[in-house]
Amino acid sequence: MRKFGIVVLGIVLFASVANAQKIVLDKIVAVVGNSVILQSDIELMNAQYVVQNMHPDKCALTQNLITQKLLIQQAAIDSIDVKEDDVQGEIDRRMRSMTQRAGGQDKLEQFLGRSILQYKEEIHGDVREMMIAQKMQSHITEKLNTTPQDVRDYFNKIPKDSLPSFNKEVEVAEISFDPKLNKEEKDVYRQKSQDLLNRIKKGEDFATLATAYSQDPGSAPQGGDVGFADRNTFVKEFTAWAFKLKAGEYSPVFESPEYGFFFLQVLERRGEQVHVRHILITPPITPESLDRAKLKADTVYNLLIKNQKVDFFSSAAAIYSDDKETKYNGGMILNPENVEVRTTYIPTDKLDPQIALVIDTMKVGGVSKPVLYTDQRGKKSYRIFHLKSVTDAHKANLEQDFPKIKAFATEDKTNRTISEWFAKKRKQTYIKIDPQYQACPVLKGWSTPVPDATTAQAKP
User: Fold this and answer.
1) Closest C-alpha among 341, 315, 319, 342 to residue 330
2) Is the pTM of this model over 0.70?
3) Above 80 in pLDDT, residue 359?
4) Which domains can be identified in the chain, with CATH numbers?
């Protein structure tokens, strides 16, 4: 987990006991420039975490609110804002998540003690402020650049006895062969989807059929409703219809190779945001389609064995692999624990157990026979693996670990930049903190110094 000197927390706005009981606390905990932070603000934020069985430090929560106010005030000066459509999209995303966890809209409304519409209006201001603060914080660090010399300087400052140790790591490439249905196999499920669309057009309730038949686990409990979203939310086939239709119109049945057969209805458009509901029918994998994938994998494996003396694996991945994430980078699997650096070096304790089992007895440069692989969603495919390199456990060094050390150096530079910005901003902004909270270690030095009477009288 990344740690920053001061971070604006991404708050999930859950209903709370304090909110449900409408507790009103009007004590001013802090004044930050022209903004105030009330005791009720802290209690509400605390309750939001308690609902998740978390018990955060109220001192840290207070610091978080103060830093958020500082960021928002600077954002106003720098003309940094967020679009209303983006705010609505974020609120809709959160409400979908909350509805799913609550087990349906009715249960969520019962828990909230109010309608979804009313609750969305209540949290609108808080969500908007949080998004502006996050955008401002990103603006502060957007021009940071970590040079090779920065990395060396950072590494050289680490005491030799404090250098981190890295576990054994491997580089693994893959070629994936997904089972594909033929036209006759697909037509059965295309027709099932078409039958549902016909029933809706004849008057049956969309939400009822979506709940009963849609195979999208995220939207089916909400009657197929996915809320407002932008063009980057959906697969391209879905996006094409969602932004082509007018409010109230239905799409025809269409296919997404990744998911199956869809049809959708547009409910509302707001600029570059669209509110849709849909039904998804996903065809199951058949034994025959698995056999066809295995045959193709065996054929490619034989080609790889015949071309072992040349680097044919990366070319074969680009030509034959069905995995979009690895297809165009030589088949190389990226470390899932380090999404920012995107390194191909994967600690063996973080490696997918199915892959670890295959490469355990392989030599560097070796290619596995096709194996049946099941991903986290339960989707099956045949895969061929190539063990490109093995790095034994070792103490950190620049030659082997430059990408990792660069990530640490970048994080350190980001932390310092953010901390320095807040230190400067605190001196430029009037901040008054209630004595009860001045005792918090994390808030030490945050209050604007008040001259004592003797000093004030001595001034001319």
Assistant:
1) 315
2) no
3) yes
4) 17-141 (1.10.4030.10), 165-180+286-395 (3.10.50.40), 183-281 (3.10.50.40)
